[in-house]
Amino acid sequence: MNKDRIFDGIAEKFSNNIYGTTKGQLRHTLLCDVLEPYLTKPVRVIEIGGGTGVMTAHIASKGHSVVLTDASKDVLKQAEVLLADAPTITIRHQYLQQIEDLNSFDLVICHAVLEWLDAPFDAIDFMYKSMKPGARLSLSFFNQDANLFANAIYGNFDYIEKGMKAKKQVRLNPKQPLSAMRVVEHCESLGFKVIEKAGIRCFHDYMRDITHQSSKFDDLLALERQYHKRAPYLWLGKYFQLILEKETD
Hints:
Elements: H1 11-19, H2 22-35, E1 44-48, H3 54-60, E2 65-70, H4 73-82, E3 89-93, E4 107-111, H5 120-130, E5 136-142, H6 144-154, H7 157-161, H8 180-190, E6 192-200, H9 212-215, H10 217-227, E7 239-246
Parallel strand pairs: 1-2, 1-4, 2-3, 4-5
Antiparallel strand pairs: 5-7, 6-7
Helix pairs in contact: 2-10, 5-8
Family: Belongs to the class I-like SAM-binding methyltransferase superfamily. CmoM family.
EC number: 2.1.1.-
Keywords: Methyltransferase, S-adenosyl-L-methionine, Transferase, tRNA processing
């Protein structure tokens, strides 16, 4: 039985939670920023777990051919509406490890997927083995280290003591956050070359006055852009993004 979490039945809530908030808008903008240098020439792209297709639409708008996959039929229905007029996009209903043609893509995008999987490191292994030499992977995931830091700031000491496992799992709370440093070490052990590291939302989620998340959004975005690739701030991103390359033999 597959224990991965998918979003059938709550697709609209999922979409609103991501793109209808400052945290979602900021995350999308910063992810696009990091990807930009790798989209300067035509590449064949696959987005794994691409959901409603917002990132896919952004990449296709730059002239690239994109395959969008997701395990949820409901979110793909929303993607079909958003991407209806995009001839360079193909939509496929697939679980990650059902993808048989990963070696035909130049750029693999897997954003905010690992933390919903029952075996996230197996997923990384699968992508590495399936990708062709020289291909790149943009990997982002919910950062367990930043999650602990945030809960300490909030005073949630009992929650931390219990291993940050809630008695009742909220469906939009990530199933399995990952330590950024551990993921970096694992990717390098497989043979990935780390081209770039970036924290996504290094400051936004820690603001004491949450009204500033919207009222000072432009200033906040400028600050995130200035520091999100610099240590130590990048390690505090609520999400962590890696650009990885499968080195040639």
